[in-house]
Amino acid sequence: MSELAETDRRKDMRRRPIVGWREVVALPELGVLGIPAKIDTGARTSSLHAVNIDLFDRDGLEFARFDLDFGGEKPTRHCEATRVAHRFITSSNGVAEERLIVKTTLSMGGIEFRAEFSLADRSDMVFPMLVGRTALRKRFLVNPGRSYLVSQSSDAREIIL
Predict the structure, then answer these.
(1) Which fold has domain 18-160?
(2) Per residue in 32-57, pLDDT tens?
(3) Torsion of Cα atoms, 108 then 34 then 121 then 131, to 10°
(4) What is the pTM of this model?
(5) What is the C-alpha separation between 54 and 111, in angstroms, rounded?
C-alpha cells in the first residue's frame, strides 16, 4: 500500500465513531427506541429477538410479520419487514440453524443505516439485539473494553412508538 493510500485509510478510520461493546440503539422503521444491544465483531450477522414469526405476501413481495417482546411489563410491538433471505446461522453454542433475515433501519450513535437482522428467540440472552460486524463495517470502530460510548445506559428502556 502506498504511503498516500495508507494516510487516507488512517484519516477515514479517525472519522468513524467509536462504539463500546454494548450500546443503546433504535429501529426507527419498526417504531422501537432504547434497545440494549451487544456489539459483537465475532458475529457476522446482526440478530434481533423476535417471536411469533410468520411470512406473508403483499403485492408480490414476501414480508415477515413478527413480535418484539422485551418481557416484563413492557408492551409487545407487532412488526412487519421485507424478507431478505433464509440463512444458516451458527449460534454462540456452535449449532447452525436456519433463520429468517429481514432488513430495516438501525440507528446507533446518531447514524442511521439499513442493516440485516436474523430473527431469533433471544429470550435467554442478556441483550435482545446483537449488532454484528457486517452492520459495523466501514461505519464504526469498536472499543471492546468500554461501554456506552455513543449512548447512555439509562436510555435502555425499549420504548414502543
Answers:
(1) Cathepsin D, subunit A; domain 1 (2.40.70)
(2) 999 999 999 999 999 999 999 999 99
(3) 10
(4) 0.87
(5) 30
